């Protein structure tokens, strides 16, 4: 996006044009060490992956439109569900928030760029290789792995070479995340403007600081799990094979020790975005800033001691089940605090509902719904009934899509003027919100009913009593897919021909990028550090 | 149930209720048939009411703010941003609510785990993609069978209208007596499966190499249906579970009949068969056990599921093929059929594969299979 900025010559006015480096065209993007360029790359990359993962979702919903096998054979269906999950989690949702981090953190803490500029380039450019491996696995003999995104042993040892490509892709993605996180932690801890103490940082920066620590702690665990899978497959180890003294459930423990923090890795930056957007459009400071920071930290700590709530049906001892149940329900307390704080921020404000605020309100409402179904699932007896059914599918899509994706949309609309120097089309933005909201609920709300009634997840064909809800859900999926084309159009239109944006288009916005930087933001954000009082 | 009617009416208004099939729209737990399933249902209702009350409370505030505190209505923003009392209250009150919820749930968890003193113990083994059942203690001890989907392939592929119990019907149902505590030992032979009967509130992952147990006590005679709930490969959707709960007398009758059929079905492994007889019987065994992977054409789905037509193993020495069928192949979906099929069935299916799809190898007699068993 800043390429466009450059072409229009906005930042020549600041005399920084020559800082773009010696290259132009594609080489500029490959060699760039600029946080904004890299942020842009992350954002476009995640949108492309969102499109690929979305196409897979449409394929899944086509097959599930009615009972019987129509479009896919069961093997290919399993490949689709697996790759949809992996691509959306690692290719779309995680990178989109790293894109936000790259663009926003230096601007919000008053720094010129990220701490490790070359490392930043490397963190991004690892991603396309990983994504290529993931997509290539479909074209290997035997196809992509059909094991689910959780890659449970020992089904993984039955897969073809596509499984190995996926394992390597996960390794590379993990490396990228760890390098990116180290960069973010260093930037936040060392490059804040004078006067910006930790407790004065915008909440978005706080949530990313905590997320980065989660990533550094959790990603190596995943790398370990998939490496053990690799050696079980090829080198005769039996980590997950009882016949050799291993245990298939050990894989699940390791995976979810990564997997539960991963949920918050995805959710926390979204919380950060929403914590910027809601005060801005309420024209009122964030309620309970300090308690927000404490609640976020509490969630992060708790996220490491609740992993086995994904595994209530493996046959744990009763003490294990009770411990993980109590620990899991505890998460409701800090999460509740956050929701109450957001509502209290809106309370007695002076509200307007531009597109970012609409998405933030949609986030608040539906993420809370996903939180409540999480509470239902945290209770062992109910979870045993609902485990691996569509209720779980509905639950985590409320958290991941209505939570993280809606927060990402709120963030894109919120900062697009600062990034491009132009306003997006407000009417189209609002239409995009309402279409996404309606179709999202059409897909996923009815899936709660399917799960309660007993439809297992990851099946390409189902008994007749599940037909109605599946048909509604599939229609919603097609609508939701089309609505995202509108989003692409809105962004492209904004970049090409949007109206020129003022320095601070949002009346209530108060972080440094709005108060101290012109629009569009200069190539090197702060060459002189601002003084924060 | 009142809620069912409401949803049916809503769906009817949407024009979706009558899709031709005579099935109700399922939207809530199946009617509980055991005390455990009823406890789960009640816990769920209790927690749902709580959630609805909290939801309305919290979002009542949000929507009131959305409605009343708008800039367009001239509402000026107040600048308060903290209130220690309020913040403490909304931390402590949810914590207290959680403790109140935890009490009844804990009791249910402990009851669910109590598999002591069963009247009947059944071992369930998950295979790709069918269930094996062994009655190991109590009336019916010694009964053992394999239970497979009985929905015809044509219904799945759209060649025939779908029956009422589409994908929820099996050839051999698990039969248990009503009102008796049944302990289920669950394991698997290849990958992880999960055994689940929703109406009985019983679900347990089947983990290869480990035995885990659950229990249920069915309160009403009837047929209860469930599906495998852990992704176990290609045919995961096609390995249902059917439990038929009958009265004590009917159960004794079933046990008697079952034992008689088992005895009658036992073939003399030393009998010499004609190749055509073996191949004819083998075709049926193949259709029941092998076709999902190796396909009706014998071409399989390489590389995951290799072809048998023209295969070196199938056209090679008899012993090698017998060993693979008896013992399976590690790290693949090829399982050890020695535990599931009789010598005669194994000899028949091997003969069938050796003499079909252009393969022209020698036949295999039951005695040869018996000799290769370890």
3D structure, described in words:
The complex is a heterodimer of chains A (533) and B (374). Chain A has 533 residues and is an all-alpha fold. Chain A is 68% helix and 0% strand. The N terminus of chain A is likely disordered. Chain B has a 5-stranded mixed beta sheet, with no helix packed on it. In chain B, strands 4-10-9 form a 3-stranded mixed beta sheet. In chain B, strand 2 and strand 3 form a beta hairpin. In chain B, helix 2 packs antiparallel against helix 3, helix 6 packs across helix 9 and helix 9 crosses helix 10. Chain B is elongated. The termini of chain B are far apart. Classes of the chains: A mainly alpha (533), B alpha+beta (374). At the A-B interface, helix 4, helix 8, helix 9, helix 10 and helix 11 of A face helix 2, helix 3 and strand 7 of B.
From the structure above, extract its key features.
heterodimer, A: 533 residues, mainly alpha, disordered N terminus, B: 374 residues, alpha+beta, 3-stranded mixed β-sheet, elongated
pLDDT < 50 runs, ≥5 residues of chain A:
1-18
Shape of chain A: globular
Straight-line distance between termini of chain A: 32 Å
- Strands of the widest sheet of chain B, in order across it, are 3-2-1-5-8
**Count of helix runs of chain A:** 17
Series of secondary-structure elements of chain A, N-terminal to C-terminal: HHHHHHHHHHHHHHHHH
Oligomer: heterodimer
Tertiary shape of chain B: elongated
Largest sheet of chain B: 5 strands, mixed
Classify the secondary structure makeup of chain A into a structural class. Answer: mainly alpha
How many strand elements of chain A?
A: 0
